[in-house]
Amino acid sequence: IGSTFGWSKAKDPESIIDIMQMLGRKLPRVPQYLFSSGKKPKGIKGVHFKRLPSLKEARRIYSSCKVWFLASLQEGFGNPILEAMACGCAVVSTDCGGPSDIIEDGVNGFLVEVGDTETMVDKIMLLYNNEQLRNQICANAIETVESYSWPKAVDKLEGYLTTIYDNEHR
User: Signal peptide span per the entry (predicted)?
Assistant: First the structure.
């Protein structure tokens, strides 16, 4: 189980620490991973922390996790979500902006209310313990990741522009 970690208020570091502590009590033998551009948080024992991992290291960390979570108060596009999905992680995120553009709740991941650490832990536990559900979520997530390729992005943009042009010239 893993997450990215940041000290800015928007990343909600307190919730990440709380979630890791709850998961550590519920799943004491399950490895937990955090990576960040900042320093390691205090108060979480047994968590593997990597500061500024290389792309290769980040891929290894994502690939070693069954579930990845994002507990931000607000988030833009959410690259870590797509990165985790691409590496085979089931994803749980707060519904904080960008993630809701990527995650369809219950289909390719789960969205929870901002600040609801108990529901976040429940969804992480559900995905961790239910292999069939996790595999289905991950299969759907791979389709999501594939829809974010450059050629598909260009096709979408071209479609939007064509629609705008057609609507203006009727």
Answer: none
- pLDDT of the residue at 166: 87
In the numeric block, which tokens belong to residue 101?
């553009």
Cα–Cα distance, 113 to 120 (Å, whole number):
8
Q: Residue written as tokens 């260009």?
A: 154
d(CA 117, CA 20): 10
**Under a CB-based contact definition with an 8 Å cutoff, are residues 70 and 4 in contact?**
yes
Whole-prediction pTM: 0.89
Which fold would CATH assign to domain 2-168? Answer: Rossmann fold (3.40.50)
> Measured between alpha carbons, how far is 131 from 89 in angstroms, rounded to an integer?
12
Q: How confident is the model at residue 51 (pLDDT cuts 50, 70, 90)?
A: very high
Give the start-to-end residue ranges of the domains of the chain: 2-168
Nearest to 28 by CA among 45, 4, 43: 45
Give the integer Cα–Cα distance in Å for 45 and 124. Answer: 19
Helix axes 131-146, 79-86, angle to 10 degrees: 120
Q: How many helices (H) and strands (E) does the chain have?
A: 7, 6
Residues 146, 151, 156, 160: what is their CA dihedral angle, to the nearest 10 degrees?
170
